[in-house]
Amino acid sequence: MGMMTEFKEFAMRGNVIDLAVGVVIGGAFGKIVTALVDKVIMPPIGLLIGGVDFSKLGIVLKEATVDAAGKEVPAVVLAYGEFINAILQFVIVAFAIFLMVKAINRMHKKPEDAPAEPTEDVLLLREIRDSLKK
Predict the structure, then answer these.
(1) What is the pTM of this model?
(2) Of 64, 80, 87, 114, which one is least surrounded by beta carbons within 10 A?
């Protein structure tokens, strides 16, 4: 029973719950970025460079064939267009995270240190110093 209690305490800590929420939101954000890249950004870029659909770009290493049993064997394709899309998605996500971290750091700036109240010892030493000057 002790292990279950420890696990419950671990799982209910704020950091673990925050991490779980971050993972869920990150997954949803990833889908948004994928749609943005695939459906909004890449089509105009493809149109500008000659009507190319980046998701379809690839090098066929082996053509599709039909085996002896009459079953179709799919082609072996090096799909570098999807890789380009994935790189663009990564750059967008990394930039969004950079902006978020930068905004959070700006909100957490430390206030300038106010001069601390002198302690009783310091006040006493100042009085002694001032009396010696006279």
Answers:
(1) 0.55
(2) 114
Half-sphere exposure of 72 (CA within 13 A, CB side): 5
Query: Which DSSP category does 56 fall into?
Result: G
Comparing 12 with 84, the larger pLDDT belongs to: 84
Nearest alpha-carbon partner for 88 in 39, 42, 26: 42
DSSP string, 26-54: HHHHHHHHHHIIIIIIHHHHHHHTTS--G
Q: How far apart are CA 118 and CA 107, in angstroms?
A: 30
- In the block, tokens 């030493």 appear at 125
In b/e form, how buried is each residue of 68-90, taking b as 16+ CB within 10 angstroms?
eeeeeeeeebeeebeebbeebbe
Do 39 and 53 touch, CB atoms closer than 8 A?
A: no
The first and second tokens of residue 42, run together, are 């890449």
* Integer Cα distance of 79 and 63 in angstroms: 14
- What does DSSP say about strands 72-73 and 76-78: parallel, antiparallel, or unpaired? unpaired
CB atoms near residue 37 (< 10 Å): 23
Tokens linked to 56: 């379809």
